[in-house]
Amino acid sequence: MDIESYRKWARRAVDWTATYQSDLGARPVRPNAAPGVIAAALPDSPPEDPEPMETIFADFERIVPDGLTHWQHPRFFAYFPSNAHRASMVAEHLVAGVAVNAMLWQTSPAATEIEGKMIAWLASALGLPGHWSGLIQDAASTATLCAVLTMRERALSWAGIAQGVAGGPTPRIYASAQNHSSIDKACWISGIGQDNLVKIPTDASHAMDPAALRAAIAADRAAGFVPAGVVIVVGGTAVGASDQVAEIATIAREEGLYTHLDAAWAGSAMICPEFRPLWEGVEMCDSVVFNPHKWLGANFDCSVQFLADPVDQVKTLGLRPDYLQTLGQSEIVNYSEWTVPLGRRFRALKLWFLLRAEGLSGLRRIIRNHVAWTLDAHDRIARIPGIEITTAPALALFSFAMTAGDAATRDLIERINAGGRIYLTQTTHEGRFVIRFTVGTIDCTERDVMEAVEVIAEAANPGRTGP
Ligand SMILES: *Cc1c(COP(=O)(O)O)cnc(C)c1O
Question: Beta strand pairing status for 287-290 and 133-137?
Answer without folding.
Answer: unpaired
